[in-house]
Backbone:
């Protein structure tokens, strides 16, 4: 059932502050009238209101947001005019009538749904609407629907469902924000945007940026899962002969514009060891952490090794706070890219360090976005293998998955054989040997810098015309 409260505050300049939402552990949806001031990335407040009032009757502005504890992806775009009016009129036109009576021509309404990836994930839809048109649409709906449907909780349930199903068919821009490690949402106050420091932000009007980011994150998750399967399910023993051939964990998008570097387990362990003493001396003041349920499908690198070194709490704290990935993007490949908190690594290339928890949070958000058929229905993931797999019917998908497992098993057995051969033929390769590669190690000072990032990170704005 929907738990919806609508609180509207009016002013001559049409400032409608966000209001607290009623929320419960099993909430279905929440609704609030919100302020367009929070949509500055879309346009100025006056521009948005003017666009709503002077709409050509074809489209209206919309903001759809996917959010969990560590990541928020906001899409700013257009929805069908008539569909948006119908969705907003599902409450019988009560909110619209209040706006019209108060002489306010436009209204902003938002619903918040629980996301599919966990109880701390949500999908929200915010619509900017002409109040008089919504009132007219509601009047027509009342003629065809019974009073019971348009009164009480039934109308609010309908309102929540209709908002969720409004289709965003055009993207104007998007904003991707990653919050500081350890950040948690206040699930009792979903109506107010979080006032917490962000680690990194990326804004662009080019949809391809989302696609290439999703491509490398998806491949990283798949490769990590495969590696974990080979190491644990097949009980593959460590082989330094095999590791001699191992390349740095580098995953590149098809167009080479985005790269994810993953640290070797030995590097993660060494970096974590430098922080163990500090962790032990301050753990009394550290908020107790627990493994987020959403992380169970993507096991952190060196998780068991870190448990042996400092215990389970230290291992979890490491996955939450210690960088394990480097994400790099070539901004010259895309139009209108704005970055905040990133640092320059090469000409036209900028990078950030991500913890395992941030990486998993990013994967969850991108997964929610690509699963959502109501946002840009024709969107495509750059990684064709994954796209083709997800588009298969369920029966074929199960069959394909079994084939993938068979290939993985065969590959794993082959690698075990190589491992055993390596131990016999090359006993001189000792445990502490280091391997050269493109991925440089992270110094402990670099890790602390990542943990202590300044809140007011310098904004870096880039447009293709500057290159």
Residues:
């Amino acid at each position: 059932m929907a738990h919806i409260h609508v609180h509207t505050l009016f002013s001559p300049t049409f400032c409608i502050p966000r209001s607290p939402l009623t929320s419960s552990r099993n909430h279905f949806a929440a609704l609030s009238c919100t302020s367009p001031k929070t949509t500055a990335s879309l346009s100025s407040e006056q521009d948005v209101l003017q666009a709503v009032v002077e709409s050509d009757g074809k489209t209206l502005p919309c903001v759809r947001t996917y959010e969990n504890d560590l990541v928020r992806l906001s899409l700013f775009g257009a929805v069908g005019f008539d569909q948006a009016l119908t969705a907003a009129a599902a409450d019988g036109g009560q909110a619209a009538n209040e706006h019209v009576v108060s002489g306010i021509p436009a209204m902003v309404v938002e619903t918040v749904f629980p996301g599919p990836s966990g109880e701390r994930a949500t999908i929200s839809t915010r619509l900017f609407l002409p109040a008089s048109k919504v009132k007219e649409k509601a009047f027509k709906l009342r003629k065809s629907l019974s009073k019971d449907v348009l009164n009480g909780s039934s109308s609010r349930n309908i309102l929540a469902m209709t908002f969720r199903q409004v289709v965003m068919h055009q993207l104007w821009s998007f904003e991707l924000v990653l919050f500081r490690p350890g950040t948690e949402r206040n699930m009792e106050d979903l109506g107010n945007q979080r006032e917490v420091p962000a680690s990194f932000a990326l804004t662009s009007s080019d949809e391809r940026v989302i696609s290439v980011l999703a491509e490398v994150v998806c491949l990283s998750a798949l490769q990590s899962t495969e590696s974990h399967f080979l190491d644990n399910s097949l009980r593959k023993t460590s082989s330094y002969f095999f590791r001699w051939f191992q390349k740095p964990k580098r995953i590149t998008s098809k167009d080479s514009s985005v790269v994810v570097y993953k640290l070797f387990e030995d590097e993660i362990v060494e970096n974590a060891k430098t922080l163990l003493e500090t962790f032990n001396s301050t753990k009394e003041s550290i908020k107790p952490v627990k493994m987020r349920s959403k992380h169970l499908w993507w096991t952190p690198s060196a998780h068991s090794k870190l448990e042996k070194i400092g215990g389970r709490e230290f291992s979890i704290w490491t996955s939450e706070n210690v960088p394990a990935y480097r994400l790099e993007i070539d901004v010259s490949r895309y139009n209108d890219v704005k970055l905040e908190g990133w640092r320059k690594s090469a000409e036209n290339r900028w990078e950030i360090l991500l913890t395992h928890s941030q990486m998993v949070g990013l994967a969850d958000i991108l997964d929610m976005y690509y699963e959502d058929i109501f946002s840009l229905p024709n969107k495509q993931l750059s990684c064709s293998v994954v796209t083709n797999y997800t588009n298969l019917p369920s029966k074929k998908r199960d069959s394909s998955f079994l084939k993938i497992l068979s290939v993985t098993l065969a590959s794993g057995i082959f690698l075990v054989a190589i491992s055993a051969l390596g131990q016999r033929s090359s006993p001189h390769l000792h445990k502490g040997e280091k391997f050269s590669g493109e991925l440089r190690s992270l110094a402990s000072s670099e890790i602390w810098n990542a943990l202590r990032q300044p809140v007011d990170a310098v904004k870096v704005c880039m447009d293709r015309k500057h290159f």
Observations:
- The two ends are 53 Å apart (CA to CA).
